[in-house]
User: What shape does this take?
Amino acid sequence: MKQQVLEAFKTAYGDTDGAWVFFAPGRVNLIGEHTDYNGGHVFPCALTIGTYAAVRKREDTKCRFYSANFPETGVVERDINDTENDETKGFTNYSLGVIYTLKFRGYNIDKGLDIAYLGNIPNSSGLSSSASVEVLTGYFLKVLFDLDISNQDIALVGQEAENDFIGVSCGIMDQFIIAMGKKGHATFLDTATLDFKYVPVDLKGAKLVIACSNKKRGLADSKYNMRRMECEEAVADLSHIKQINHICDLNTFEFDQLKPYIKREVCRKRAAHAVYENQRTIKAKAALENGDIEYFGKLMNESHRSLRDDYEVTGKELDTLVETAWKQEGVIGSRMTGAGFGGCTVSIVKDDCVDSFIEMVGRIYEATIGYKADFYVVEIGGGPTEL
Assistant: This one.
Protein backbone atom coordinates (compact mmCIF):
# COMPACT_ATOMS: atom_id res chain seq x y z
CA MET A 1 0.00 0.00 0.00
CA LYS A 2 2.92 2.34 0.64
CA GLN A 3 4.05 2.02 -2.95
CA GLN A 4 0.49 2.45 -4.21
CA VAL A 5 -0.04 5.71 -2.37
CA LEU A 6 3.33 6.99 -3.64
CA GLU A 7 2.23 6.12 -7.16
CA ALA A 8 -1.00 8.05 -6.56
CA PHE A 9 1.09 11.00 -5.35
CA LYS A 10 3.23 10.82 -8.48
CA THR A 11 0.10 10.67 -10.67
CA ALA A 12 -1.20 13.84 -9.05
CA TYR A 13 2.00 15.88 -8.68
CA GLY A 14 4.52 14.46 -11.16
CA ASP A 15 7.15 13.11 -8.73
CA THR A 16 7.54 11.88 -5.16
CA ASP A 17 10.51 14.01 -4.13
CA GLY A 18 10.25 14.94 -0.44
CA ALA A 19 7.07 12.94 0.17
CA TRP A 20 6.45 11.26 3.54
CA VAL A 21 4.02 8.33 3.93
CA PHE A 22 1.64 7.81 6.87
CA PHE A 23 -1.17 5.43 7.87
CA ALA A 24 -4.18 5.64 10.21
CA PRO A 25 -6.59 2.74 10.78
CA GLY A 26 -10.31 2.38 10.44
CA ARG A 27 -12.24 1.05 13.40
CA VAL A 28 -15.07 -1.28 14.25
CA ASN A 29 -17.13 -0.96 17.40
CA LEU A 30 -17.76 -4.36 18.96
CA ILE A 31 -20.54 -3.05 21.21
CA GLY A 32 -21.63 0.27 22.71
CA GLU A 33 -23.46 2.08 19.91
CA HIS A 34 -24.80 5.64 20.18
CA THR A 35 -23.50 5.76 23.76
CA ASP A 36 -20.45 7.92 23.08
CA TYR A 37 -22.28 11.24 22.89
CA ASN A 38 -24.52 10.07 25.74
CA GLY A 39 -21.65 9.87 28.25
CA GLY A 40 -21.50 6.08 28.21
CA HIS A 41 -18.98 3.34 27.47
CA VAL A 42 -17.87 2.04 24.09
CA PHE A 43 -15.79 -0.99 23.17
CA PRO A 44 -14.17 -0.52 19.75
CA CYS A 45 -10.94 -1.75 18.16
CA ALA A 46 -8.72 -0.34 15.44
CA LEU A 47 -8.31 -2.36 12.24
CA THR A 48 -5.40 -3.18 9.98
CA ILE A 49 -7.30 -1.57 7.08
CA GLY A 50 -7.43 2.20 6.97
CA THR A 51 -6.20 5.30 5.17
CA TYR A 52 -2.75 6.03 3.74
CA ALA A 53 -1.34 9.44 2.81
CA ALA A 54 1.73 10.60 0.95
CA VAL A 55 2.45 14.20 1.97
CA ARG A 56 4.93 16.93 1.01
CA LYS A 57 5.29 20.42 2.47
CA ARG A 58 5.07 23.40 0.13
CA GLU A 59 6.60 26.86 0.35
CA ASP A 60 3.28 28.70 -0.01
CA THR A 61 -0.05 28.34 1.82
CA LYS A 62 -1.77 26.31 -0.89
CA CYS A 63 -3.07 22.84 -0.09
CA ARG A 64 -3.54 20.40 -2.95
CA PHE A 65 -5.56 17.25 -2.31
CA TYR A 66 -5.85 14.09 -4.38
CA SER A 67 -7.61 10.83 -3.51
CA ALA A 68 -6.89 7.62 -5.38
CA ASN A 69 -10.37 6.52 -4.24
CA PHE A 70 -11.95 9.43 -6.16
CA PRO A 71 -9.61 9.86 -9.15
CA GLU A 72 -12.38 11.43 -11.21
CA THR A 73 -12.28 14.43 -8.84
CA GLY A 74 -8.65 15.15 -9.76
CA VAL A 75 -6.52 17.51 -7.69
CA VAL A 76 -8.54 19.87 -5.47
CA GLU A 77 -6.92 23.13 -4.37
CA ARG A 78 -7.66 24.83 -1.04
CA ASP A 79 -5.68 27.15 1.22
CA ILE A 80 -4.60 26.52 4.81
CA ASN A 81 -6.37 29.74 5.75
CA ASP A 82 -9.77 28.61 4.39
CA THR A 83 -12.34 28.73 7.17
CA GLU A 84 -15.43 27.35 5.44
CA ASN A 85 -16.77 23.84 4.85
CA ASP A 86 -17.21 23.81 1.07
CA GLU A 87 -19.54 20.91 0.29
CA THR A 88 -18.53 20.99 -3.38
CA LYS A 89 -15.01 19.93 -2.37
CA GLY A 90 -15.93 16.67 -0.70
CA PHE A 91 -13.34 14.77 1.33
CA THR A 92 -10.96 17.76 1.51
CA ASN A 93 -13.18 19.30 4.20
CA TYR A 94 -12.16 16.63 6.71
CA SER A 95 -8.50 17.51 6.29
CA LEU A 96 -9.05 21.23 6.16
CA GLY A 97 -11.26 21.04 9.25
CA VAL A 98 -8.34 19.53 11.18
CA ILE A 99 -5.94 22.21 9.87
CA TYR A 100 -8.42 24.93 10.82
CA THR A 101 -8.98 23.46 14.31
CA LEU A 102 -5.26 23.10 15.02
CA LYS A 103 -4.61 26.68 13.88
CA PHE A 104 -7.55 27.89 16.00
CA ARG A 105 -5.95 26.15 19.00
CA GLY A 106 -2.74 28.08 18.39
CA TYR A 107 -0.59 25.53 16.59
CA ASN A 108 1.72 26.97 13.93
CA ILE A 109 0.86 25.56 10.50
CA ASP A 110 2.26 28.14 8.12
CA LYS A 111 2.91 26.17 4.93
CA GLY A 112 0.68 24.37 2.49
CA LEU A 113 0.84 20.71 1.52
CA ASP A 114 0.58 18.37 -1.42
CA ILE A 115 -1.40 15.33 -0.24
CA ALA A 116 -2.47 12.07 -1.88
CA TYR A 117 -4.81 9.76 0.02
CA LEU A 118 -5.51 6.07 -0.55
CA GLY A 119 -7.94 4.15 1.63
CA ASN A 120 -8.91 0.51 1.80
CA ILE A 121 -11.87 1.19 4.08
CA PRO A 122 -15.15 1.01 2.11
CA ASN A 123 -16.47 4.57 1.77
CA SER A 124 -19.67 5.36 3.72
CA SER A 125 -19.45 1.91 5.33
CA GLY A 126 -19.57 2.89 8.98
CA LEU A 127 -15.94 1.87 9.56
CA SER A 128 -15.00 5.51 10.07
CA SER A 129 -13.22 6.47 6.87
CA SER A 130 -13.83 10.16 7.71
CA ALA A 131 -12.41 9.88 11.24
CA SER A 132 -9.48 7.92 9.82
CA VAL A 133 -8.72 10.84 7.49
CA GLU A 134 -9.05 13.32 10.37
CA VAL A 135 -6.66 11.44 12.67
CA LEU A 136 -4.27 10.74 9.80
CA THR A 137 -4.21 14.46 8.94
CA GLY A 138 -3.60 15.43 12.56
CA TYR A 139 -0.81 12.88 12.85
CA PHE A 140 1.10 13.92 9.74
CA LEU A 141 0.73 17.58 10.68
CA LYS A 142 2.20 16.71 14.08
CA VAL A 143 5.24 15.12 12.39
CA LEU A 144 5.76 17.59 9.55
CA PHE A 145 5.31 20.74 11.65
CA ASP A 146 6.83 19.31 14.84
CA LEU A 147 3.67 20.00 16.83
CA ASP A 148 3.68 19.30 20.57
CA ILE A 149 0.42 17.33 20.64
CA SER A 150 -0.49 13.88 21.95
CA ASN A 151 -2.44 11.28 20.01
CA GLN A 152 -5.31 11.70 22.46
CA ASP A 153 -5.44 15.42 21.70
CA ILE A 154 -5.31 14.64 17.97
CA ALA A 155 -8.49 12.62 18.55
CA LEU A 156 -10.14 15.58 20.29
CA VAL A 157 -9.10 17.88 17.42
CA GLY A 158 -10.65 15.44 14.94
CA GLN A 159 -13.91 15.37 16.87
CA GLU A 160 -13.96 19.17 17.12
CA ALA A 161 -13.37 19.46 13.37
CA GLU A 162 -16.24 17.05 12.70
CA ASN A 163 -18.58 18.89 15.09
CA ASP A 164 -17.78 22.50 14.25
CA PHE A 165 -16.34 22.47 10.73
CA ILE A 166 -18.22 19.55 9.12
CA GLY A 167 -21.38 19.98 11.19
CA VAL A 168 -21.89 16.42 12.47
CA SER A 169 -22.54 16.09 16.21
CA CYS A 170 -20.42 12.95 16.61
CA GLY A 171 -19.01 11.72 19.90
CA ILE A 172 -15.36 11.00 20.60
CA MET A 173 -15.28 7.24 19.97
CA ASP A 174 -14.19 7.06 16.33
CA GLN A 175 -11.33 9.50 16.53
CA PHE A 176 -10.20 8.18 19.93
CA ILE A 177 -9.88 4.53 18.95
CA ILE A 178 -8.18 5.40 15.65
CA ALA A 179 -5.66 7.62 17.42
CA MET A 180 -5.15 5.32 20.42
CA GLY A 181 -5.67 1.81 19.03
CA LYS A 182 -3.50 -1.10 20.18
CA LYS A 183 -2.80 -4.21 18.11
CA GLY A 184 -4.71 -7.26 19.32
CA HIS A 185 -6.75 -5.27 21.84
CA ALA A 186 -10.16 -3.62 22.07
CA THR A 187 -10.39 -0.32 23.95
CA PHE A 188 -12.94 -0.01 26.75
CA LEU A 189 -13.54 3.73 26.87
CA ASP A 190 -15.60 5.82 29.27
CA THR A 191 -16.57 8.65 26.93
CA ALA A 192 -17.59 10.93 29.81
CA THR A 193 -14.12 10.92 31.39
CA LEU A 194 -11.88 9.49 28.59
CA ASP A 195 -10.63 6.88 31.06
CA PHE A 196 -9.80 3.77 29.06
CA LYS A 197 -8.46 0.26 29.35
CA TYR A 198 -6.98 -2.02 26.69
CA VAL A 199 -8.53 -5.50 26.76
CA PRO A 200 -6.87 -8.39 24.84
CA VAL A 201 -9.20 -9.91 22.25
CA ASP A 202 -9.05 -13.71 22.20
CA LEU A 203 -11.96 -14.99 20.12
CA LYS A 204 -11.05 -18.65 20.83
CA GLY A 205 -11.09 -20.05 17.31
CA ALA A 206 -13.35 -17.42 15.74
CA LYS A 207 -12.91 -14.42 13.46
CA LEU A 208 -14.35 -10.93 13.17
CA VAL A 209 -16.27 -10.65 9.90
CA ILE A 210 -17.45 -7.26 8.64
CA ALA A 211 -20.34 -7.19 6.20
CA CYS A 212 -20.74 -3.94 4.28
CA SER A 213 -24.34 -3.38 3.19
CA ASN A 214 -23.26 -1.07 0.34
CA LYS A 215 -26.14 1.23 1.20
CA LYS A 216 -24.46 4.60 1.12
CA ARG A 217 -25.19 7.10 3.81
CA GLY A 218 -23.60 10.29 5.02
CA LEU A 219 -23.83 11.13 8.71
CA ALA A 220 -24.51 14.80 8.09
CA ASP A 221 -27.46 13.86 5.85
CA SER A 222 -28.87 11.18 8.18
CA LYS A 223 -30.99 11.31 11.30
CA TYR A 224 -27.86 11.07 13.45
CA ASN A 225 -28.10 14.60 14.82
CA MET A 226 -31.82 14.05 15.49
CA ARG A 227 -31.08 11.02 17.69
CA ARG A 228 -28.63 13.09 19.70
CA MET A 229 -31.19 15.84 20.21
CA GLU A 230 -33.83 13.33 21.32
CA CYS A 231 -31.45 12.01 24.00
CA GLU A 232 -30.64 15.54 25.11
CA GLU A 233 -34.37 16.24 25.38
CA ALA A 234 -34.72 13.21 27.67
CA VAL A 235 -31.88 14.52 29.86
CA ALA A 236 -33.56 17.94 30.03
CA ASP A 237 -36.84 16.35 31.14
CA LEU A 238 -35.13 14.29 33.84
CA SER A 239 -32.92 17.12 35.09
CA HIS A 240 -35.97 18.54 36.91
CA ILE A 241 -36.02 15.34 38.96
CA LYS A 242 -32.35 14.34 39.21
CA GLN A 243 -29.13 16.19 38.37
CA ILE A 244 -27.51 14.38 35.45
CA ASN A 245 -25.23 15.51 32.64
CA HIS A 246 -25.82 12.58 30.28
CA ILE A 247 -28.48 9.90 30.01
CA CYS A 248 -25.82 7.23 30.62
CA ASP A 249 -25.21 8.68 34.08
CA LEU A 250 -28.18 6.49 35.02
CA ASN A 251 -28.08 2.74 35.56
CA THR A 252 -30.97 0.60 34.38
CA PHE A 253 -32.71 0.56 37.79
CA GLU A 254 -32.58 4.36 38.08
CA PHE A 255 -33.76 4.79 34.50
CA ASP A 256 -36.74 2.49 34.97
CA GLN A 257 -37.77 4.52 38.02
CA LEU A 258 -37.41 7.88 36.24
CA LYS A 259 -38.48 7.17 32.66
CA PRO A 260 -42.14 8.25 33.20
CA TYR A 261 -40.80 11.80 33.59
CA ILE A 262 -39.54 11.81 29.99
CA LYS A 263 -42.39 13.56 28.23
CA ARG A 264 -42.19 12.20 24.69
CA GLU A 265 -42.40 8.48 24.03
CA VAL A 266 -39.83 8.67 21.24
CA CYS A 267 -37.30 10.26 23.60
CA ARG A 268 -38.06 7.58 26.19
CA LYS A 269 -37.21 4.89 23.64
CA ARG A 270 -33.96 6.59 22.60
CA ALA A 271 -32.91 7.02 26.21
CA ALA A 272 -33.78 3.40 27.02
CA HIS A 273 -31.44 2.19 24.30
CA ALA A 274 -28.56 4.37 25.50
CA VAL A 275 -28.89 3.35 29.17
CA TYR A 276 -29.26 -0.37 28.51
CA GLU A 277 -26.59 -0.35 25.82
CA ASN A 278 -24.16 1.24 28.24
CA GLN A 279 -24.77 -1.56 30.75
CA ARG A 280 -24.44 -4.19 28.01
CA THR A 281 -21.06 -2.73 27.11
CA ILE A 282 -19.83 -2.95 30.70
CA LYS A 283 -20.99 -6.60 30.81
CA ALA A 284 -19.34 -7.31 27.44
CA LYS A 285 -15.97 -6.06 28.67
CA ALA A 286 -16.20 -8.38 31.68
CA ALA A 287 -17.24 -11.28 29.43
CA LEU A 288 -14.21 -10.78 27.18
CA GLU A 289 -11.89 -10.56 30.18
CA ASN A 290 -13.38 -13.81 31.50
CA GLY A 291 -13.07 -15.57 28.14
CA ASP A 292 -16.86 -15.93 27.82
CA ILE A 293 -17.23 -15.32 24.09
CA GLU A 294 -20.68 -16.94 23.97
CA TYR A 295 -22.09 -14.37 26.42
CA PHE A 296 -20.30 -11.61 24.55
CA GLY A 297 -22.12 -12.74 21.40
CA LYS A 298 -25.50 -12.73 23.14
CA LEU A 299 -24.89 -9.15 24.24
CA MET A 300 -24.08 -8.22 20.63
CA ASN A 301 -27.41 -9.71 19.54
CA GLU A 302 -29.28 -7.79 22.25
CA SER A 303 -27.52 -4.61 21.14
CA HIS A 304 -28.79 -5.00 17.60
CA ARG A 305 -32.37 -5.59 18.71
CA SER A 306 -32.25 -2.41 20.80
CA LEU A 307 -30.76 -0.42 17.92
CA ARG A 308 -33.53 -1.79 15.67
CA ASP A 309 -36.51 -1.36 18.00
CA ASP A 310 -35.69 1.52 20.38
CA TYR A 311 -33.11 3.61 18.52
CA GLU A 312 -34.47 2.81 15.04
CA VAL A 313 -31.21 3.23 13.14
CA THR A 314 -30.89 -0.15 11.41
CA GLY A 315 -33.15 -0.37 8.34
CA LYS A 316 -33.91 -3.27 6.01
CA GLU A 317 -30.34 -3.72 4.78
CA LEU A 318 -28.66 -4.05 8.18
CA ASP A 319 -31.52 -6.09 9.61
CA THR A 320 -31.31 -8.52 6.69
CA LEU A 321 -27.57 -8.99 7.23
CA VAL A 322 -27.88 -9.48 11.00
CA GLU A 323 -31.03 -11.58 11.09
CA THR A 324 -29.61 -13.84 8.37
CA ALA A 325 -26.33 -14.07 10.27
CA TRP A 326 -28.13 -15.20 13.43
CA LYS A 327 -29.42 -18.27 11.55
CA GLN A 328 -26.02 -19.43 10.30
CA GLU A 329 -23.94 -22.19 11.84
CA GLY A 330 -20.93 -21.01 13.83
CA VAL A 331 -22.18 -17.46 14.46
CA ILE A 332 -21.51 -16.42 18.05
CA GLY A 333 -22.97 -12.92 17.71
CA SER A 334 -23.86 -10.32 15.11
CA ARG A 335 -24.96 -6.69 15.17
CA MET A 336 -24.91 -3.49 13.19
CA THR A 337 -21.88 -1.32 13.91
CA GLY A 338 -21.41 2.41 13.44
CA ALA A 339 -24.09 5.07 13.23
CA GLY A 340 -26.52 2.93 11.24
CA PHE A 341 -28.79 4.00 8.37
CA GLY A 342 -26.68 1.72 6.16
CA GLY A 343 -23.05 0.85 6.66
CA CYS A 344 -21.82 -2.39 8.19
CA THR A 345 -22.44 -5.26 10.54
CA VAL A 346 -19.86 -7.06 12.67
CA SER A 347 -20.12 -10.77 13.42
CA ILE A 348 -18.05 -13.23 15.43
CA VAL A 349 -17.90 -16.43 13.38
CA LYS A 350 -16.13 -19.70 14.17
CA ASP A 351 -13.11 -20.27 11.94
CA ASP A 352 -14.44 -23.33 10.10
CA CYS A 353 -17.75 -21.59 9.32
CA VAL A 354 -16.44 -18.29 7.89
CA ASP A 355 -16.54 -19.31 4.22
CA SER A 356 -20.05 -20.77 4.42
CA PHE A 357 -21.20 -17.73 6.43
CA ILE A 358 -20.02 -15.32 3.75
CA GLU A 359 -21.53 -17.44 0.96
CA MET A 360 -24.95 -17.92 2.62
CA VAL A 361 -25.42 -14.42 4.04
CA GLY A 362 -24.19 -12.89 0.79
CA ARG A 363 -26.60 -14.94 -1.31
CA ILE A 364 -29.64 -14.24 0.87
CA TYR A 365 -28.79 -10.53 1.14
CA GLU A 366 -28.50 -10.10 -2.64
CA ALA A 367 -31.76 -11.97 -3.22
CA THR A 368 -33.57 -9.84 -0.62
CA ILE A 369 -32.07 -6.40 -1.25
CA GLY A 370 -31.19 -6.60 -4.95
CA TYR A 371 -27.46 -5.88 -4.79
CA LYS A 372 -24.41 -7.44 -3.21
CA ALA A 373 -22.85 -7.00 0.21
CA ASP A 374 -19.08 -7.05 0.62
CA PHE A 375 -17.37 -9.08 3.34
CA TYR A 376 -14.08 -8.51 5.15
CA VAL A 377 -12.38 -10.87 7.58
CA VAL A 378 -10.49 -8.31 9.66
CA GLU A 379 -7.65 -8.20 12.16
CA ILE A 380 -7.19 -5.78 15.06
CA GLY A 381 -4.42 -3.25 14.45
CA GLY A 382 -2.75 -0.28 16.13
CA GLY A 383 -2.92 3.49 15.85
CA PRO A 384 -1.49 6.00 13.34
CA THR A 385 2.08 5.66 12.20
CA GLU A 386 4.72 6.93 9.77
CA LEU A 387 5.67 4.27 7.22
Residues 2-200 form a domain with the Ribosomal Protein S5; domain 2 fold (CATH 3.30.230.10). Residues 265-289 form the longest helix (25 residues). The CA atoms of residues 15 and 93 lie 25 Å apart. The longest strand covers residues 44-57.
